[in-house]
């Protein structure tokens, strides 16, 4: 196929033609899901690469692996346009053989200082820009100093308080073209996804408007853990000059069935240092338990595992693995529906009017989520407001962890709910599913790894001496 016909291909959305061709320093494309934003950006970027020598910096907030970038999306568009022979695609870069155009891929959180030193960038494409911070923008904006250079800023709106919404939508700066696009302008959607969208509209109009029409939420007061709190916890140990602490724990959320995935979060002291997610068949619990046990052995860590459903058998596997490897790793069952810890203790020990744990929390899951939420809130106040707290009441997330975008989303999505007795609980997976929110496996593993605990391990462990 000739490159001269590329713009007429049906893989580019004609509704966005003027958006891409209007001269501007900042191109801001936002809206709901299934709107073709990223697909169109990738297609237009490939078109430009076939016409002129450009350097494109493809950035997103968290990118510890090339698979987390738009690299795959660009490759797909190259193939759809029939241009594979014109490009050299390596493991971490894409170049056009004729024009010399190149695409580079960076994560803002870990590489912002390295990005500052890049020269000759024509386009900085920021994908999933809802996570962009004011501090990062103050670094990025003067970094693109080449004449005619541009920012492409793409995102699904989250909150009206997010920096990217306030900076580019609420108070749009000069030399900026912004365009909202939703699924209603995407001519390439299948009937299947259209039916899914209409079902969501019939079920929950407010959620439909947020997810598919890109309407930002006014606030996040309905959630257990606020997004701003989680963001503040990123690299909090370094920000606050704290040691992680000695205790090692691994939280393990066991996949139930079907499309559900296993998740693992490893913690050193007050900092999450490792985040993993993987899919296995229902009959492969031993394989997953072995993976978790190997991580725990490497860290000399305790294991907290989901003991509901399939996970009920994980303890027996950990017992066998202890015997096999001659180690004494403690492992603890976590049943979200169990009764609360210290039921007669007050929720707030310093408040004489505070209710007791058993009267305030519906179950163990609620109690642990609220405990973790308190640590996130404390961390936010320490980082953003300079308030002082004991290190044990804070929480940190190492920015080198994988799946950070997903982890932040999952931690800051579940809402507060109440049982028939008026006690607080966390929005159930079933109710999350009604909002088209997948099971928060990473968040559940995270909370288990930081969960308060009073009971001793429920299963005995084998030592070298009694093998």
TrEMBL record:
It comes from the Bacteria. Coiled coil: none annotated. Residues 26-215 form the Phage terminase large subunit N-terminal domain. InterPro entries: P-loop_NTPase, Phage_terminase_lsu, Terminase_L_N, Viral_DNA_packaging_terminase. PANTHER family: PBSX PHAGE TERMINASE LARGE SUBUNIT (PTHR39184:SF1), PTHR39184. This is PBSX family phage terminase large subunit.
């Amino acid at each position: 196929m000739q490159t001269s016909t590329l713009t007429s291909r049906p893989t580019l959305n004609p509704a966005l033609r003027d958006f891409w061709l209007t001269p501007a320093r900042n191109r801001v494309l936002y809206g709901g899901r299934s709107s073709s934003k990223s697909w169109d950006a990738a297609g237009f970027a490939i078109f430009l690469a076939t016409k002129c020598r450009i350097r494109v910096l493809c950035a997103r907030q968290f990118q510890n692996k090339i698979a987390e970038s738009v690299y795959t999306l660009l490759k797909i568009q190259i193939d759809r346009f029939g241009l594979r022979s014109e490009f050299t695609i390596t493991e971490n870069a894409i170049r056009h053989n004729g024009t010399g155009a190149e695409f580079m891929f960076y994560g803002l959180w870990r590489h912002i200082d390295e990005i500052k030193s890049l020269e000759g960038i024509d386009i900085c494409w920021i994908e999933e820009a809802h996570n962009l911070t004011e501090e990062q923008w103050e670094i990025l904006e003067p970094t693109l100093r080449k004449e005619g250079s541009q920012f492409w800023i793409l995102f699904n709106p989250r909150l009206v308080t997010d920096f990217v919404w306030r900076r580019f939508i609420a108070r749009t700066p000069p030399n900026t073209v912004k365009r909202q696009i939703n699924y209603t302008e995407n001519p390439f959607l299948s009937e299947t996804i259209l039916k899914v969208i209409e079902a969501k509209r019939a079920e929950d109009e407010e959620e439909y408007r947020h997810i598919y029409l890109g309407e930002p939420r006014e606030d996040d007061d309905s959630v257990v853990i606020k997004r701003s709190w989680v963001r503040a916890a990123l690299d909090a140990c370094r920000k606050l000059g704290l040691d992680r602490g000695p205790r090692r724990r691994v939280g393990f959320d066991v996949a139930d069935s079907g499309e559900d995935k296993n998740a693992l979060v490893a913690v050193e002291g007050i900092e999450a240092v490792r985040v993993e997610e993987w899919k296995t068949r229902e009959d492969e619990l031993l394989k997953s338990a072995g993976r978790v046990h190997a991580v725990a052995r490497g860290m000399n860590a305790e294991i907290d595992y989901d003991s509901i459903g399939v996970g009920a058998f994980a303890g027996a596997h950990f017992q066998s693995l202890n015997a096999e490897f001659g180690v004494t790793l403690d492992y603890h069952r976590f049943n979200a529906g169990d009764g609360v810890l210290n039921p007669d203790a007050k929720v707030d020990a310093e408040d004489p009017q505070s209710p007791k744990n058993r009267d305030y929390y519906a179950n163990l899951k609620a109690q642990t989520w609220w405990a973790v939420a308190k640590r996130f809130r404390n961390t936010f106040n320490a980082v953003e407001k300079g308030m002082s707290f004991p290190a044990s009441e804070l929480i940190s997330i190492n920015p080198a962890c994988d799946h950070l975008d997903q982890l932040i989303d999952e931690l800051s999505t579940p809402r507060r709910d109440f049982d028939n007795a008026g006690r607080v609980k966390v929005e159930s997976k079933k109710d999350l599913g009604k909002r088209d929110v997948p099971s928060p496996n990473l968040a559940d593993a995270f909370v288990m790894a930081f969960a308060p605990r009073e009971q001793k391990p429920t299963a005995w462990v084998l030592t070298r001496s009694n093998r």
